[in-house]
């Protein structure tokens, strides 16, 4: 197994939630010409090509690696997966307009669950901290909740607790000032940085785990706020017994880089009411959901481009695991796109929000018709 392939495997396995198996037999690593890549660089910031740019560097070659999943697998065949789940019917490749994107590697039917993805980092919103699992954001039963009216956090299961190595680190420090600052300022992303920092210190992820995502270009007023946040985070850790060598990664540069990626790539988690089957019966793109329970960052879901009339959407049924669902029948080779914003807004409002929030002008078919 080559080094580049190993990197892809390491990056994608945790996201896809299953082992990819022997690459030589199951996967092919196809290569696109680098001129395609340079053409795409002129495209929107949202064209998060940095993922492939990173692979490019790691592969030490002038080509971009793209991942193809075999088209004969079906993710819906859950009965026959005693061995391991099948790879999703998608591949990541280059679009003509916006760098990389996600494509169907076979025909996909309306309502099909295309894949699920586990977050790299997630955190409940401060208002939900005592009512949801501190790891997976699942709603805690109300009996457990009333016991937790105080200051502690809870996990919904021993599995979630076992996977929360970050919490062993977090417990060592007093977060009251940090949390209070976030609460007063109405900040949610520093909580994700805090969680990530604890994950890094506990050794479950490396400090550059988010580098594969496209960053936002930071504005100058954000930089001064950011300095305050990083000092607060640093002081909080300084007050614990965590060794300084374990905290060496925690620099202003690291904080800025991580925050810039979180700002563009974080999903707001709204748990849908009902089961996946209920959702299938709803033809609409939007599903009824309760208020946001938290925020999370994923890799694969961040590779989807935007469309104001999307053919897939992402739903959260019971916890933070993202479920990517087909909204209509999709042909093999078609690009899969999600809607980054509230699709019910009119043309002008959508254009403004997409430009201000994501830095691109939308040219989707719906926008072309000024709908
Ligand atoms: C964190 O605090 C230590 C000790 O006060 C200091 O030496 C270090 O420069 C600080 N790091 C950042 C990123 O502020």
TrEMBL record:
It comes from the Eukaryota. GO terms for cellular component: nucleus. The keyword Signal applies. The keyword Signal applies. SUPFAM superfamilies: SET domain. Residues 1-17 form the signal peptide. Residues 88-341 form the SET domain. It holds the Pfam family SET. Gene3D superfamilies: 1.10.220.160, 6.10.140.2220, SET domain (2.170.270.10). Keywords: Signal. PANTHER family: HISTONE-LYSINE N-METHYLTRANSFERASE ATXR4 (PTHR12197:SF298), HISTONE-LYSINE N-METHYLTRANSFERASE SMYD (PTHR12197). This is Histone-lysine N-methyltransferase ATXR4 isoform X2. It comes from Sesamum indicum. The lineage of its organism: Eukaryota, Viridiplantae, Streptophyta, Embryophyta, Tracheophyta.
């Amino acid at each position: 197994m080559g080094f580049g392939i190993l990197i892809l495997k390491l990056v994608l396995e945790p996201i896809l939630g299953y082992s990819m198996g022997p690459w030589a037999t199951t996967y092919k690593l196809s290569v696109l010409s680098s001129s395609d890549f340079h053409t795409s660089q002129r495209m929107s910031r949202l064209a998060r090509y940095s993922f492939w740019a990173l692979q490019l560097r790691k592969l030490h070659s002038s080509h971009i690696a793209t991942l193809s999943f075999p088209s004969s697998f079906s993710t819906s065949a859950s009965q026959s997966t005693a061995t391991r789940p099948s790879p999703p019917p998608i591949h990541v490749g280059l679009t003509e307009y916006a760098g990389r994107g996600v494509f169907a590697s076979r025909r996909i039917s309306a309502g099909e669950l295309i894949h699920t993805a586990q977050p790299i980092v997630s955190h409940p919103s401060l208002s939900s901290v005592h009512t949801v699992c501190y790891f997976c954001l699942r709603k805690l039963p109300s009996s457990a909740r009333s016991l937790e009216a105080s200051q502690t956090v809870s996990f919904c299961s021993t599995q979630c607790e076992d996977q929360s190595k970050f919490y062993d680190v977090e417990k060592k420090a007093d977060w009251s000032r940090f949390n209070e600052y976030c609460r007063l300022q109405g900040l949610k992303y520093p909580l994700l940085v805090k969680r990530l920092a604890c994950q890094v210190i506990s050794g479950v992820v490396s400090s550059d785990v988010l580098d594969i995502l496209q960053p936002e270009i930071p504005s100058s007023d954000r930089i001064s706020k950011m300095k305050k946040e990083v000092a607060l985070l640093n002081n909080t850790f300084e007050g614990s017994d965590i060794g300084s060598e374990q905290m060496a990664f925690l620099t202003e540069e690291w904080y800025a880089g991580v925050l810039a990626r979180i700002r563009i790539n974080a999903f707001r988690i709204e748990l849908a009411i009902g089961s996946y089957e209920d959702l299938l019966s709803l033809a609409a793109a939007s599903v009824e959901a309760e208020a946001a329970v938290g925020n999370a960052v994923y890799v694969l879901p961040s590779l989807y481009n935007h469309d104001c009339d999307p053919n897939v959407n992402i739903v959260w049924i019971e916890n933070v695991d993202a479920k990517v669902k087909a909204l209509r029948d999709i042909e093999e080779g078609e690009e899969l796109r999600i809607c980054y914003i509230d699709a019910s807004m009119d043309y002008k409002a959508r254009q403004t929000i997409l430009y201000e929030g994501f830095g691109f002008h939308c040219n989707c078919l719906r926008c072309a018709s000024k709908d």
